[in-house]
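User: Can you recover a sequence for this backbone? Please restate the input before giving your answer.

Assistant: Of course. Working from this structure:
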């Protein structure tokens, strides 16, 4: 595997197979608002329909919803406190998730989403500090009782 610098620091990270190709596509896509919105919609629909028994995918599921929310806010111009490199990384992960014929095709029962989870975990780790800042921004904007993916975050009566 080749290594890339993490966006949030100087350490190097192993790049999952297939990610680099999607990063190239993501660089173009972030400049096409209509196509980007369509990809985000498709990713939300696919995420809603995924019923994976993989514990690895379950751990990145909520984070993927937050990544989609972040890119939507960025594309709308509502949230811009993130580097272009991080937006490209996130969009690349979303494109990879949408590709049914990636390194391990999604239709291979039990294994198809494992590579998606690996790529998404790589992206989440790569943009972790900016993802945390986005969550803080959403909490300040919407109040402390909701997380960026729209799920209740504690007692709504608190």
């Amino acid at each position: 595997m080749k290594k890339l610098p993490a966006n949030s620091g100087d350490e190097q990270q192993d790049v999952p197979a297939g990610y680099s190709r999607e990063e190239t596509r993501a660089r173009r896509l972030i400049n096409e608002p209509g196509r980007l919105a369509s990809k985000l919609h498709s990713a939300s629909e696919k995420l809603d329909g995924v019923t994976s028994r993989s514990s690895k995918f379950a751990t990145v599921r909520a984070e993927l919803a937050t990544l989609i929310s972040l890119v939507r806010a960025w594309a709308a111009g509502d949230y811009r406190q993130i580097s272009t490199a991080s937006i490209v990384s996130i969009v690349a992960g979303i494109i990879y998730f949408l590709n049914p014929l990636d390194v391990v095709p999604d239709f291979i029962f039990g294994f198809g989403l494992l590579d998606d989870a690996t790529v998404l975990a790589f992206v989440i780790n790569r943009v972790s500090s900016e993802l945390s800042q986005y969550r803080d921004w959403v909490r300040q904007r919407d109040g402390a009782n909701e997380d960026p993916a729209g799920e209740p975050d504690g007692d709504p009566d608190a």
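That completes the design. Confidence is low (pLDDT under 50) at residues 1-10, 154-158.
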